[in-house]
Write a structure and sequence with these properties.
Number of helices: 16
Number of domains: 3
CATH class of the largest domain: Alpha Beta
Structural class: alpha+beta
Mean pLDDT: 85
Largest sheet: 5 strands, antiparallel
Helix content: 25-40%
Length: 723
Amino acid sequence: MGSLMLRLSSHSQHDTSNRRGAIIVLAAVCMIMIFAFCAFTVDVGYMTNVKAELQLTADAAAMGSVSEIPNGEAEVKKVARQLAELNPAAGKKVTLNNEHIELGKYDLASKSFVVNPAEANAVRITARAVDQPTFIAGVIGHKKFTSQAKAVAMLAPRDIVFVVDLSGSMNDDTEPCWASSTIDSTFKSQGFPSAGADLMKDLFTDFGYGSYPGSTQYIGSPVGITANNYAYAELTKDNGPLTGSSINSLYRIANNDSEATRKTKAYRWIIDKQIAVQMPKAKPAPNSQSNYSYWEKYLDYIIESRSVGSNPPSPPSSGGGGGSGGSGGGGGGTTPTPPKPPSGMYLPNDLPENPFRLTLDSPRSGSRIAAPAFLTSSSSTATMLLSTPSQSSSPGLPRNGSTLKVTVPPSQDGERITGFNNPNKSIYPSAGNANGWRNKIGYITYVQYMMDWGRDRSPTYANGTNANLSLPDKTPLSVHSPDCPYHKEATPAGNFDFPPREQPMHAVRRSLIAALDVVDDMNKSITPGFGDRIAIITFDAKDAYHEPEILVPLTSDYRAAMVKCTTLQATSDVGNSTATEIGMSMARELLKDTTDGGQGRKFADKVMVLLTDGVPNVWETPASEVETFISENPSDEYYDSDYIWYNSAIMQAAKFQQKKGSLYPVGMGMGADYTFMDKLSRTAATDDSGKGPRGSGNPKVYEQTLTDIFKDIIKYPGSRLVE
């Protein structure tokens, strides 16, 4: 029994011991599981967090450095390292080695990245955290871990529209009869005493006119006419130099010629004997038989009209009803006043040269002359008129035997050198006028004439239709004239043929070409359709012939766009021609995604570059619509409600910004309104400390300043993560 109890006791103790051993083993296994679970929850969570931090670092470094591709590989790597260090992971700075920063070509179509620094449009960043200690996993043999994250960012493709002002003031700097001397005096203190004259030298060279300013000749000078404001009247009077028997019948003035006939004969003589001699290089070749109408407008433009002669004064009222005047009573009648002849009218040939200077008994074909009624009066008026001395010695008299008042030349075109906004006081407030150039024939006044008529106007037609490009007789300045002289110039993008160098327009042409050259370089290796595209919209006035125009639709053919830039020219100075709002509105519509009716791409950034030198003066949106938009989108940038020409353009900037578009308003020239341009920049959120890009008022640096601005905009595109 005792032995049995001992055996049972021994067995019981053995079982207990076994159970204890099993529990220890189970506990150990459980501990391992617990540690593994803790490692999973703590260390794996930590590793996941580190991975996320590394991804943020890689994203930031890729996004921030890719925009430096235009500045070279070294700059990309420098910026990538700086950004990586600013975005730590695992509590430490992330250091990027050279192999962690790869420049290459990303193809959006195939979603692939190929290392290729020479044709890079993307950057791949690998951010790593190496040998990071674990918290608990070391217990199960995992004391350290390494994690990494990659990101690929590419230069964001852009749809870029250049909106270019072609208003009449875009050739003001080369209007020599008022602007050149003002530019010289303005920039003399800055070391450019001939800034304006140098522009004109270039233009004279382009036209083949020789040395600027050339010589001028007063009208009538070859036949001895005194150089004063009565020159035309003296040239065309009865006993003037064109009445001599030696004068060709084409030009010879007869005393009984009407003023219209005198004008035609005198103008023919001036065209053939003065313009053709004084300006032998002028086109169209001056010839009164083949292009009279064209050169007639030039002469109307420069010749100063004058009134010569005088009409007899109106007689005083008479108190007598049918009496002889004097103090007798009567019925309150008045003495009739002889009618004045219309401007340019002449007296019929069957009347004496001046009936008011005849004696009352002068015979005429055997009959007595009937004197005007007021001359039969006994009043002192009759005595005064009869004793008036002859005016034949006065300037421009007599004309058709008369000394009555007449304005010459007759039917003169209203577009004169003293008009056309000469000078443009908003741009050149201190400029003198062009009055001193009247009556002067020479290349300098002819260039002024061409600048005023611009690319669009045909002087021989009325202003209502003469901007029609299908009409002939554009001036040689215009690319629409067969006489336009092109010349070749070297640019960063190669050689191009340009029309004459009107300024500041020519600086715009060349700077746009330089900007497009940068775009071309940045997109050479990009799959067609996935790089930048550009468009050009031009604006001036708004009428049947001046609607803003999509000169170049969105395209990747940068070379073709450059060629189009060479033809940009200012419009004439006739009427208002700065339709800024309409040009901006057209650009917005063009940049809309194709699904919204535009030409834009959903994956592309939308960019508008507005280039203008003046204050807008043409708009399209009704005032009520502008006011409604302002009330719904209030901003301190708007002007008072009366300034719709400003507010309509600012509204376009606001609408574009709301759609995430980037507008860069670039002002240029002495007349740029930077208060307005800065408002546009602030509305578009593209300002720099409240200001937009500043062009130059100095013609000597127009091109370089604009080129630098355009390059800055083009060379720093946005970026996007693609992996």
